[in-house]
From TrEMBL:
GO terms for molecular function: phosphatidylinositol N-acetylglucosaminyltransferase activity. The keyword Nucleotidyltransferase does not apply. Belongs to the EMP24/GP25L family. It is a single-pass type I membrane protein. Residues 48-160 form the GOLD domain. Keywords: Coiled coil, Glycosyltransferase, Membrane, Signal, Transferase, Transmembrane, Transmembrane helix. The chain crosses the membrane at residues 12-33, 193-213. Residues 144-178 form a coiled coil. This is Transmembrane emp24 domain-containing protein p24delta3. GO terms for cellular component: membrane. InterPro entries: Emp24-like (IPR015720), GOLD_dom (IPR009038).
Length: 225
């Protein structure tokens, strides 16, 4: 009985070990893959509120936004919305809307900015905007993929997991390139600081020599030495 019980424990332990990579992969997927985010933005009666997201190139972005007025007694509040790329290019712009959607594929890496403001004249109350922001695989229509390729169940989940792995790989490559750029900047900064230190020491030595030469000439002129 003791041996049999030991065999059962070993088998369970093996199953746990075999399942650990999949658990680790799932945790990585949650941590590294950009997904869907629902954001509530409180807009004042005057002024602009913006949200930003750092996104790498060639990533699909899909977002829906809806306005909810803080004062139900008034007419439906309308807002203006503007989405810009890291280089200031306008990707989406709407005025006097209460519901809207924008979708685009990123062309450069950096912070993408979505700004909202109330444009109703004489509006004294603020409003809230519900922004449903989906990035990457979260913006993909998996129902359409399943119908088109006639897959479902475990096969569909494996396809999603494969997409998450690809997204993790792309994120790691993006972070690696950023780290490389930062290392180059750091090395250039260190080199400039080193040259500045050498120049400072050289200037200090030259000034000291000139001071000694001047003092020596002064003392000789006064016949003190």
């Amino acid at each position: 009985m003791g041996k049999g019980g030991g065999g059962t424990v070993d088998s369970s332990f093996s199953i746990v070990l075999l399942g650990f990579p999949f658990l680790f992969l799932a945790l990585l997927s949650i941590s590294w893959v950009p997904g869907a985010r629902a954001i509530w933005i409180n807009l004042p009666a005057s002024g602009t509120k913006c949200v930003s997201e750092e996104i790498q190139p060639n990533v699909v972005v899909l977002a829906d936004y809806m306005v909810i007025s803080d004062d139900p007694s008034h007419d439906q509040t309308t807002i203006s919305a503007k989405v810009t790329s890291p280089y200031g290019n306008t990707l989406h712009q709407k005025e006097k809307v209460s519901v809207g959607q924008f979708a685009f594929t990123t062309s450069e890496a950096g912070n993408y900015l979505a700004c909202f403001w109330i444009d109703s004249g004489g509006q004294s109350a603020g409003a809230s905007v519900n922004l449903d922001w989906k990035i990457g695989i979260a913006a993909k229509d998996w129902d359409s993929v399943a119908k088109k390729e006639k897959i479902e169940g475990v096969e569909l989940e494996l396809r999603k997991l494969e997409a998450q792995v690809q997204a993790i790989r792309q994120n790691l490559l993006y972070l690696k390139s950023k780290e490389s750029d930062m290392r180059v900047v750091s090395e250039k900064t260190n080199a400039r600081v080193a040259w500045f230190s050498i120049m400072s020491i050289g200037v200090s030595v030259v000034v000291s020599v000139l001071q000694l030469w001047h003092l020596k000439g002064f003392f000789q002129k006064k016949k003190l030495i």
